[in-house]
Amino acid sequence: MNKAHFLCLLLSVVLFSCFKKEADLPRKTTGKINTISVIIDDQLWNGEIGDSIRNKFASPVIGLPEEEPLFTINQYPVKLLEGFATDSRAILVIKKEAENKFEIKENQYASPQNVFHISGKTATEILQLLEEHTPEIIYRIEQGEIAESQRINKKALLQTTSFKKEFQLTIQVPSDFEQVLRKPNFVWLKKKIISGSSSLLLYQVPLNTITTSNAAIDILTMRDSIGKYIKGTEPNTYMISETGYTPYFFKSKIDNRLAYETRGTWQLQNDYMSGPFINYTIVDTTNHRLLVLEGFCYSPSKEKRDVMHELEAIIHSVHLLKNNTFTPHKK
Question: b vs e for 103-137, b when ≥16 Cβ sit within 10 Å of the residue's Cβ?
Fold first, then answer.
């Protein structure tokens, strides 16, 4: 075999190996954030099973001023369980079959993906399985969508070295956010969107700023005091918590630390601007402080679910470091 033939053969083997490796890789999932595919025949979709799915997976997102669905649902009949219908990150497959079964398959058709299979002999048994497993399904979908948003954010990140130095943390903030205000122990980042803006606040306060027994009220008092920094264009306008809506308050976890999660509506004092906010107050006993991450947006007459989702994904990317040099700022 001469040298030219040998090189051609070697090149063919390398190309074949590359093509085979590429063919063995799973397809990449596609689709908009917070969208799920429901594979179910029309007869079941138009009955009480479909009603139950819509009530659970398209229920209103808490903390938004107008009703928006938890997930956008695309329904397809079972015979379309192929092609584009299998490219979603979250797929719910509902069938009437001889066996009652609930099963989760990861990356069944593409990656990253969760496929939830529910089957039952009767509509009643399918409804029982839905009722039992919906919290787990929603949790896994939400975690998958947070991960997808973080993957998108990583494509172009803001330089946050100064945050690491002052706040002893790392956080993945997209590069289209700009710093609009900085004070000791406080940063305000803002991003322009078509319908307005979205903002991220990062600040730290002494550990005794809130008490366990009165945490919900203390957090609102704290954020209203910080809201003096968020001014409108008119004189004497600043951000406060909307008193007409009772905020939602939960215990949560961020970076494996206790956090208080508050969702509600903000408004500008002496002005008409308003919108939703999500506040995570992290109890950082290691560094003797409360670390607060808050996202809020102004998007009048536009949907806000996915804007707030991006802010939540940023917040959940935070990782706290040790040995913070935090000292309370004296006003």
Answer: eeeeeebbeebbbbbbbbeeeebbbebbeeebeeb
